């Protein structure tokens, strides 16, 4: 058994983080630009227009890029929804993300916010097609496996490496989920996803880099995730998608 016997089974179905459908609580955010814009400026107006465009364009496919404005008032943006999220929940998540970024990163010329169901990012510097190494965070369950921690870590890497290959290999959504049976009662679930502006090669590079960080944050934990501005990976002992 990989699961700690001291943990009530009901706890195993609890998430590490709030799902958008439940509380619309962001996982994290980053106001990464050193530059600010002023209230009622052309940049601010272009950012509002960009958010409206992404809100309209993203839900049908779950992903969109766009740019608005010219010169020093040019702003680039991207939104991505998790691969299994419905159009309705995608729409709601992107709308919530725009509202939160306006509050949390007021007047910043570059910012990103993550929810369980989506991410939203904008910048005055074009970032399309480039791996974002600067904005990344990790989350882990506070509980550890009861035994066989080294073997559990190996199984996590095995599953997520398979999903990295699947997501980056001619997959139009750059998204994959899967599961691995650990023993008669324990199933490991995994997810891997890239933003769709990346090439397959860069998607795999991003995902493999995220997987390599898991031992530092989430080794022998019952669940964990590494999330960035270009890709994310995660594992749990309960189904991740469809929630």
UniProtKB/TrEMBL annotation:
Major location category of this protein: secreted
Q: Does the keyword Repeat apply?
A: yes
One short Pfam name that applies is: Stress-antifung
Supply the alphabetized keyword list. Repeat, Secreted, Signal
Superkingdom of source: Eukaryota
Keyword Signal belongs to the record: yes
CC annotations in GO: extracellular region
Q: Where is the signal peptide?
A: 1-23
Stored CDD domains:
Gnk2-like (cd23509)
Domain named Gnk2-homologous is located at 25-127, 133-240
Under the heading Gene3D superfamilies, the entry gives: Gnk2 domain, C-X8-C-X2-C motif (3.30.430.20)
Question: Which InterPro entries does the annotation name?
Answer: CRR_secretory_protein, GNK2, GNK2_sf
Q: Where in the cell is it found?
A: Secreted
**Which residue windows are transmembrane per the record?**
none
Entry similarity comment? Belongs to the cysteine-rich repeat secretory protein family.
Q: Which PANTHER family match?
A: CYSTEINE-RICH REPEAT SECRETORY PROTEIN 38, CYSTEINE-RICH REPEAT SECRETORY PROTEIN 38-RELATED
This protein's name: Gnk2-homologous domain-containing protein
Per the UniProt entry, what species is this protein from, by scientific name?
Malus domestica (Apple)
